[in-house]
Each structure stands twice: as C-alpha cells, then as structure tokens.
Amino acid sequence: MKWTYFLFIRLYPLLAKLLAPFNSKAALWVKGRKGLIQQIKKAMQLNEQPIIWMHAASLGEFEQGLPVVESIKKQYPHHRLVVTFFSPSGYEIRKNHPIADWVFYLPMDSPSNAAEFIAIVKPSIALFIKYEFWYFYLTELRKQQIPTLLISGIFRSDQLFFKWYGGFFRKMLLNITHFFVQDKGSASLIKDLVLPNSISISGDTRFDRVLSIAAARKQFPIVEDFCKDHSIIVAGSTWSDDDKVLQHFTRVHRNAKFIIAPHQISPERLAECLQRYPSAVLLSEYESLAVQQKANFQTLIVDNMGMLSSLYYYATIAFIGGGFTSEGIHNTLEAAVFGKPVVFGPIYVKYLEAVEMVEIGAAFSAETALEMETLLDELLNDHAKRTASGQAGADYVANNAGASNKILEFIQANLLLTN
After folding, report:
1. For residue 419, is pLDDT > 70?
2. What is the CATH number of the domain that holds 224?
3. CB within 8 Å of 27: residues ≥ 6 apart
4. 64 shares its domain with 180
5. Quick one: average pLDDT of 173-183?
6. Where are the beta strands (DSSP E) in 25-107?
7. Which range marks the domain in which residue 18 is found?
8. Is the per-residue pLDDT at 327 higher than 90?
9. How does pLDDT run across 185-217, given as a tens digit for each residue?
10. How would you label 200-224 residue by residue, b for 16+ Cβ within 10 Å and e otherwise?
11. Residue 165 DSSP class
C-alpha cells in the first residue's frame, strides 16, 4: 500500500489542476498552494514565540479542535497558534478566525515539504484532528521529537489500518505521541498497534464546542420576525437529495414554516432550493422587504455561512442534512444542545453521536421520504414526545462534555508546553 499513498500524493495536485477550470473548489485548492512555502516563510520570519500547530482537514475538524486550542491558549498565553487546512472549505471560511495567529493551507505531503514546513514553523506541539494522517509530516515530527497528539480520533474496523495489506498505514500510527479517542471501540482497535500507554478515551471535543456556541448564541431579529408563533423546521447542511425528501412535506404543511440552510451556497444550489421549496425567499432578500411582503413567504433560504449553529435555537424540529446522501449526516450536536428533537436520513452509522442519540430517543432516522413525512408529522403533533426527545438530546450533550479539559490536563501533566 506504500506505493498507492505515494501515487496519491503525486497525482492529487495534478488532478486538482486539471479540474480547476471547471470546479471552484479545485481552483481554490490550486491557487492557495502557489508559492505556499515561501508565503509561510515570509509570514513567520519574525516570530520568536513558541508555536502550537493545529491541523484540520476542513471546517468540521477545525470546529472540533477549537475548544482544545482555546483552552491551551488560556493556559499558555505566550504561545502562538498556527492552523493549517487541507480543504478550501475550511480555509476560506476560517482564514481570519481570531483564535489563530496564522492560517495556511497545508503544503502537500512530501519529504521536502514536511521538513521545510516544520523547520519554518518550529512547533512545540502538533495537534491533528480526528483522522488526518500524513506520512511525511508525522515521520518528521517524530524525528524532531515534537509531541504529536491526535484529537477526537475515531477508528472503524473497515479502515486501512486494520486490513491485511495496511501495514504502511499502521506504521504511521507509531509516529503519534498520544491518541485521544472518542470511544472504547476505537481504543480497542488500535491498542495493539501503537506505543504502550499512548491511548486515552477522552470523548469528542465537539460536545465542548457546541456548549460554548450555545452559551454565546447569536440572535437574529430578522429570523425571529420570520418565525413568529409558527412551528419551525430548520433543515441544516442540506444536499439535493435531502431537498427531494423534504419537498413534498413542505408543500402540504402550509401552517409550518421552514428555514433551509444548504450545505453549499453556490448560485446554482440556491436557485435549486428556491425552485424546490414553496413560497421561498433568500434571507438576504427577505431582510429588505416591506412588512406586508414578508407575510407571503413560508420558506427562508439561508444564503450565507456561519449562522446555522445559532439558527437551530429557533427550531421546533431540526432536520440534519446529508443522511440521504453517500456523504452521511452533518453535525447533530449543534441542534441537540438547544434541546431540539433531531431527524435525519438513513446514512448515519459512521457517526457515534448520531447512533447513540437514536438509541436514547434524542434523534430519529427515516429511510424514505414517506417515513420522514410520517416522523415529522408525529413530532409536530406530539408535544410530549417532542419535549422528551429534545431534553434527552440536551442531557446527552451536557453529560459528554469535558474532552478538552482532559487533553489540557495531559499536556500540563506531561510538561509538553513547558520551556
């Protein structure tokens, strides 16, 4: 499998360049890596402070790592933070986040890039979030004896590490100083593959993140104006296949209102949502309408990024997108933290929190559009069930918080950031 990894890191940039003229995400990926090493060198040339390096694949992983680096920077205020992303969808949205002193794309994995990046950044510690494994970076970090932690790691038996031909990927695990995994199953899978005493079952840092988001919830008067006293279904991070499932329900339930926050907000995607949903309007347009005009709309299409986690507060029921696609569902905890019953499609088994929420009645899954319609009807009409489900979700989030503190305590106890 070693040769397939080497082939991947060679071919991926070439494929991105070929796709760039036709794909905006590929174009951003290519553009962001032009002269990247020199950009990093120039940006950091005057730095004399110790560095924490956090790497996240994309936006979701950044949110997962955020409570950890917030805790670390409170305890070590003289350390500065470098954040790297692999994906444009993370970098473009969080490149100006105030927690980070510098935000970069991660140069493509190679012996020279890894050695040069680490020589420039000189991290005191490296935090890799959830499932990022880059062979040359991890090898160079171990060579330089830089503590490397995997945060909120989760492992499944179908991953390459556990295949008979996965020896090369298993070797990568030996470069990680300590694994903070989400559950016992993950710990059990890797216990014979990693260094002794290098695993802690810490839980998922996303619980800490959603609690902090809820505590600092943004208020949107324009959304409150739209909702008034109606039942509200907030559908977050939806894809086209999710829209197809919700479409009929929205057309036959004219007493309810709907807030749709699509996963992507390209002009084409927004136009599709406007076409599918009844009496729909973009949020940016709704804001400027006269009062009498606003009454005509049943569906609000959110055409910006960054609102969704607070929008769930207004929901009677939260529909989590992705469950009717091969991608799988998005973040259920953002809705559960507000005590909202959560529904989604059948593709969710890879997400531990979703599985556990279904088991305790905090979330419900439907296989088909008809099943989803029945489920939504039942929840809208059964106040007691809705309340019990929402409370189960809120309790689940509260009871699983604390992973970030466990990681910080480990860093302090092992003097990983003590000069």
Report:
1. no
2. 3.40.50.2000
3. 20, 21
4. yes
5. 97
6. 51-56, 80-85, 102-105
7. 2-203+402-413
8. no
9. 999 999 999 989 999 999 999 999 999 999 999
10. bbbbbbbbbbbbebbeeeeebeebe
11. T
